[in-house]
Write a structure and sequence with these properties.
Layout (H helix, E strand, L loop, with lengths): L1 H6 L14 H12 L8 E3 L2 E3 L1 H8 L13 E12 L2 E12 H8 L3 H18 L17 H9 L5 E4 L8
Antiparallel strand pairs: 1-2, 3-4, 4-5
Length: 169
Amino acid sequence: LESLTKNFPTLKRAQFWMSFGDSYLKHLEVLGNVGMTGIEPIDYNGQKIVPIQFLKALLPDPSTLGPRTKGKTCIGCVVKGIKDGKEKIVYLYNIKDHQDCYQEVQSQAISYTTGVPAMIGAKMMLEGKWKQPGVWNIEQFDPDPFMEDMNKYGLPWNVIELDNFNLDD
């Protein structure tokens, strides 16, 4: 978000949101209530341990979750702006099924939706489409070849126009 506001100075507001299911949030709340999400070392039987690191050691390796992860991800952006002199609000999004990802690459959709865009960005650099001297953020490059490759490499996206959508609510 920081680089977006620097590279698009007319941008008035940029927010990032994630949503989680009630079960996940309840588990996280309970773990927090009993101190397991703490990052400060505590003394346990004469040894210093960091609760969240101990918790990580107890949890399953994320790479083993693919076969049993069910459901879908939805990643999107609601964008409000002026196009052709008229205010417009659109929702650009992608939906990916965990089991489809597992069938293709033996991973769940979280890893897939993280890895595919990174691969496409690297591809854009290797092809010279996103290569300039200095340090650049992706929003400073032409998005069209990236978005075309999102469709080509398993993350098809959709756009819908939102009428009467209030971004201030």
